[in-house]
Structure formats: structure tokens, C-alpha cells
Amino acid sequence: MIELFLSELRRFRTAAILYAAAGLVLVTVMNQLTDLVTGPRELHAVMTLLYALSGLGFALYQFGTYRQPSRWIWLLHRPMHRAPILAGITLASVLLIALAMALPLFVLLGLQDHFTARVVDTRHYAGIGFMALTSVSCWLSGAYIMLHRSRWAFVVLMLPILLTMHMASYGTMLALALACNAVLLVLVYTVFRPNRYTGDDAVATVASAVPLQLSFYIALLWSGSTLFQVGQMVAGVHPLEADEAAAGGGVEASRFDPREALQAGLAAVKDPRAAGWSAALGRDSSASLGPGQRQYTVRDTVSARSGLKIADSQQNNWTFSHDRMMYSGLNRHARPAGWFGAGGKGDAVPFDSQPVPLRDNRARGYLANAHDMYELEQGGLKLRHVLHAAGREQLGAGIAVLGPRTALLTNRRVALLEERGGQLAPLASIPLPVPFGDLDRAEVGQVADGTLVSFIGGRRRLDGVMPAPHVVYLVDAGGQVRELGRREVVHDFPVLFEHRDWWVSPVLHAAVSLPAILIERGVVPDYGASRFAPLLLPRPPAVWAAAIALALLSALASAWWTGRAALGPGARLAWCLACLLLGMPALLSLMVLQPRVVREEAAASGAPVAASA
After folding, report:
1. Which tens digit of pLDDT belongs to each residue from 111-149?
2. pLDDT grade for 102, boundaries at 50, 70 and 90
3. DSSP H/E element including 48
4. Is residue 610's pLDDT more than 50?
5. How far apart are CA 481 and CA 577, in angstroms?
6. What's the confidence (pLDDT) of residue 446?
């Protein structure tokens, strides 16, 4: 093992040194053009992709040479188990990746941390570690692709995407990356042998089938959705491509401006004053409430979503530090300008989480995080606290000012505040008629009799949520809230298309959804709802019928296929049950892992046939 470890280092040392030198020069030049550590997440995603592709290419070349019979004989012509052989190659490769890819970034970040006034947090160092682990994941995936007998082995690349690509804290991300690498290492071990057609045992089959089924599930959804929508476009009936959207549908509602949305809601109101309200509404007396933010940046996340930097009237740039939970300032000469906390410039009180800058309909600036809204006074960095959302209530980052009243959107309600003596005092609270995740948009309008508030649901109708109401409320001068009327927004797409994620494979839908549900990603939740509520949505009878029919069809097809693939009774039963439970993705993975033609040729030539489970 030690000999293999050292030989791999000697074999690739020149390439690693050249890669590290080129990478250091490149990132140094880029860092002069833009601050890489505080750059947008799109930049970080591109950098991670490039390093991941480097790891993948390294593995394809490395194991492509080991697939040569002479090299396999050299590797295996020794009294050693294949485990220490794989361990030696893996440890050497991981060390090469760390030295060639991660070390230059650590050097550059350390120099910036100690010799400049730019913000460098612990999460930035952790981000380099995550990037290196992602490269290792792609290296292991490349090894699996080269050593697996199937040409479909490349779908294992979906595993790192499903497990690790989340906007979570760096501790969670590093743990997920390590877990992903452990799973991939087990997969590589199952195929690490010179004869790619042996070892077709239960463990190897299951290890190959699980990522294959998940990948086929995603591929079926993407390809099926794309083909269906392309067909609609060719036929000229795609709802999003039509010049005039269907009346009363969700596409039409999404194209409304605030005044039109209020007028569409008032059209279903029976109050005799509704026609007058509708005619009196103008662009200056109506405004949108968002939602402006559905996901906030989690503390210590590897890459921030948005709102990391703000500027003041003195041309100072302020960058948010996750270590101190405050803004650090730099003047035009790149010199420190102090700190900016929850109380304003010079205040040492940290924010609860990274705030997001936003503006209301009058172009006034605000800072908002999940629980607090601050008004940013013009001409300086002074903050006025506007609203605090306690407990499970979180801000939707929507704010509008109409006359003396200010409306703020949360995941539970619209809080209506009124200016009294220079302070904002609560006037009314209008509960959301739909869960926050289903809320497509909200508007407010000022009329002679008070304030109109409109809610349009249906944002998650493409995820299978059926109700999509449009509800209008009136808040009178005394703060009394009254529902004026409601209408149902028509669904523009067929029901099977809207529920396609579920009926293709309910079990795999749950498996793919679980990481996003369990990992804290800063998503604004539905107030009072269980975290697992998206998995328990009611499904129409037509969707249940499609799911059952597809499962039965997959089971019958698997029974026919396994009979032709010369499998034993136990293996046939296991595959049929898997296809009945998981549907079409399991059937496709069966066709890949148990190719009928190869089995028949192997049996005719006297080669070993698949063992029974």
C-alpha cells in the first residue's frame, strides 16, 4: 500500500505542481479584478464546477490507464487484497487534489486575511475545503465510470448534486460532502476489479442500482417535461408562450401589475362599492407586497445568496461578516471605515442573520432578515426598527407604503401599520388565506373606504398543490378586516403534468425531496405547517390511477425481462418487487444492470451467469 501511495505521487507530481502554479496565478489575477470570497454564488458555482471537472478528468485518465490488462496484472500480481490497493491509490489521489487544487486557494485567502482589510470569515476557509471534497467526489465518480461495465455509469454524477448542492451552513455542507465521498468510495470498491463482468452479487447490484434509479427518475422528469412542453410550443398551445393568456388562469394572474391584480379580485366582489373602488385605483394608489424573499442566507453558509454588500452616500462599501454578524466598511481608498450593526453605524449589536436590502414602492431603502425589518434612513447608515416577527413567523420581505399606512408581508399575515406621532403603530393583521409557499403574489390598494389587500395563490400548482384562490380583503378606517370575495384561479396545465414529480415514482419523489426538507437552507416556511407537509399533499384520482398503472406496468415488464436475462428466482422476485415499488426508474436500471443480450451471449459461451439472490 505504501509503495503504491508513493508511486502515484511520483507519477503525477509534475502535473500537480503545474496545475497548482497555474491555478494560483489565475485566481490571483481574478481576485484583483473582483473580490472572489464575497463574489456572487454564481461565480462560486462556476469555480466549483471547474475544479470538479478537473477531478473528474484526473480519474478518467488515471483509471483509464489502469484498465489496461498489463497494468492490472502489475497492480494485482502481489499477495495483497484489492482493498489496500484501492486505499493506496485513493489516498495518493486525495493528497494530490488537496495540494494542487486546495493549497493555492488557502495560500491566497490567508494572504488576503492578514494583509488586507477585506472581509474573510471562517466560512471562506471551509468553502475551499468543500470545493476540494467536491473534486474528490468527482474523482471517485470518474473512477466508478471507468471501472463499471455499463455505459450508463455516468449517472452516478447525480449523487453529489442531490446530496451536497444546498445553500446550508458550512458544517452541514462539509458533513454531506464527507458522507457523499464515503458512499462513492463504497461504490468504487464494488467495481474495483480487473474483470468488469464478475462480482455480480447482491451488494454490488444494490450499490449500482440505487444511484442509477435516482438518476433515471430525474432524467425521466426532465426529459418528459421538456418533450411535453416542446410539443405544446410546436402546437401553439403552451400557456407561457401565448400572447394572450387564458382568462382566469395562473399565467394571466402572473402578468398582472398591482392595479390589474386588485381589479381582477374586485370583479368577483358583490359589494356595490366594488365598481367604484376598481375605477378609482391607479398606479400611485396600488403597490405590490411581493413576496420579495422566499429564502434567506443561512449563517456561515459557504456562498451567500445576495445582499452581502451595501453602499452609503459617502461612497463607503460595507460587506457583511458572518463571523461578527455585522457589516465591515471600506472607504474609497480601501481603508477600514468601521462596523455597522443592528443599531446603525458604529453600533456593536450584531444582526440575528444576514439582512437583505430592499425598497418599497416609494424607493425608500430597508434591511430585512427573517425576523426584523429596518428602515435605512437616507444620507447615512441609521436604522429605524419597523417590525419584529417572533417565533415561527418570518418576514416575506415585502413592504409598501400608501398614505399614512404601511403594509408588511410575513409568512403568517399582512401587518398593516399606521403612522402615529412619528412612530408606526399596528392597525390590523390580515391572515394569509393560503400557506406562504403557495402565495404567488400580494397587493395593496388605497381607496376612499380604507385599504384593499389582495392575495393570489397557486405558486406551487406545478408541484401538485391544487387550490389557487384569489382573495380580496378590506381594512376600513377603524382597522376592521372584512373579506370581500374570492375566486379560484384556473390551472393552465393538465393535472398529470402538474403532479408529474409524484406519479412517476412516489417513493423516489420522497427520497429526492428529503434532503431539501431535512437540511436547514433558510427557506421561509409555511406558518404552522409540518416540515414534511410537501410529502403528504392530497393527489387527485387521475394521478393515483397513473401512479398505480405505471407501477403495475413496470412490474410486468420486469418479470418478462428477468426471465430473458437468466436470473435466479430470488433475483427475479427482488427486481419485480423493486419495479412495483419504484416504478419505471427501477425498470430502466434493471435493463442497464442486467442486459439481456449480454447474459444470453455469456451463457452461450460458457461464462458464469448472474448469481441468484
Report:
1. 998 888 888 999 999 999 999 999 999 999 999 888 887
2. very high
3. helix 41-66
4. no
5. 55
6. 93
Q: Nearest-5° angle of CA 606, CA 612, CA 613?
A: 155
Residue with cell 419504484: 582
Cβ proximity of 505 and 372 under 8 Å? no
**Cell numbers that stand for 361 in this block:** 414602492
With H, G, I as helix, E, B as strand and everything else as coil, classify residue 420. Answer: strand
Q: Could you give the CA distance from residue 340 to residue 310 in angstroms, rounded to a whole number? A: 11
> Number of C-alpha atoms within 13 angstroms, CB side, residue 151?
1
Residue 453 β-bridge partners: 444, 473
CA–CA distances in Å: residue 155 to residues 152, 192, 263, 338, 438: 6, 18, 50, 50, 33
If one counts every other C-beta atom within 10 angstroms of the C-beta of residue 601, the result is 11
Is residue 381 classed as helix, strand or coil in its secondary structure? Answer: coil
Q: Which SS3 state, helix, strand or coil, does residue 240 take?
A: coil
Residues 248 and 487: beta-carbon distance below 8 Å: yes
C-alpha grid cell, residue 80: 495483497
Taking alpha carbons only, the member of 479, 473, 480, 488 closest to residue 266 is: 473
What's 295's DSSP letter? B
In whole angstroms, give the CA distance from residue 120 to residue 134: 22
Distance CA 77, CA 94 (A): 24
pLDDT at 599: 45
| C-alpha–C-alpha distance, residues 150 and 137, integer Å | 20
Contact predicate 174/584, CB 8 Å: no
Closest residue by Cα to residue 485 from 278, 301, 243, 219: 278
Picking from 58, 69, 66, 100, the residue whose alpha carbon sits closest to that of residue 86 is 66
Residues 6+ apart with CB under 8 A from 138: 52, 53, 55, 56, 59, 157, 160
Residue 95: what residue type? L
- As a 3-state breakdown, the chain gives helix, strand, coil percent values, each rounded to 5, of 50, 20, 30
The overall average pLDDT reported for the chain is 86
Neighbours of 74 (CB within 10 A): 11
Grid coordinates 385599504 are at which residue? 451
CA–CA distance, 318 with 346 (Å, rounded to integer): 12
The answer to whether residues 108 and 27 touch, using CB atoms and an 8 Å cutoff, is: yes
CA dist 379 to 4, 308, 463, Å?
66, 20, 45
What letter does residue 195 receive in the DSSP assignment? -
The residue type of 577 is L
In the block, residue with C-alpha cell 456561515? 300
Average pLDDT of the segment spanning 216-224: 89
Q: Retrieve residue 150's grid coordinates.
A: 455499463
C-alpha cell at 316: 463607503
Residue 367, strand partner residues: 357, 374
CA 251 to each of CA 234, 237, 257, 461, 467: distance values in angstroms, whole numbers, following the listed order: 19, 13, 13, 11, 15
Q: Are 430 and 416 in contact (CB under 8 A)?
A: yes
Q: Which three cell numbers mark 355?
A: 439582512
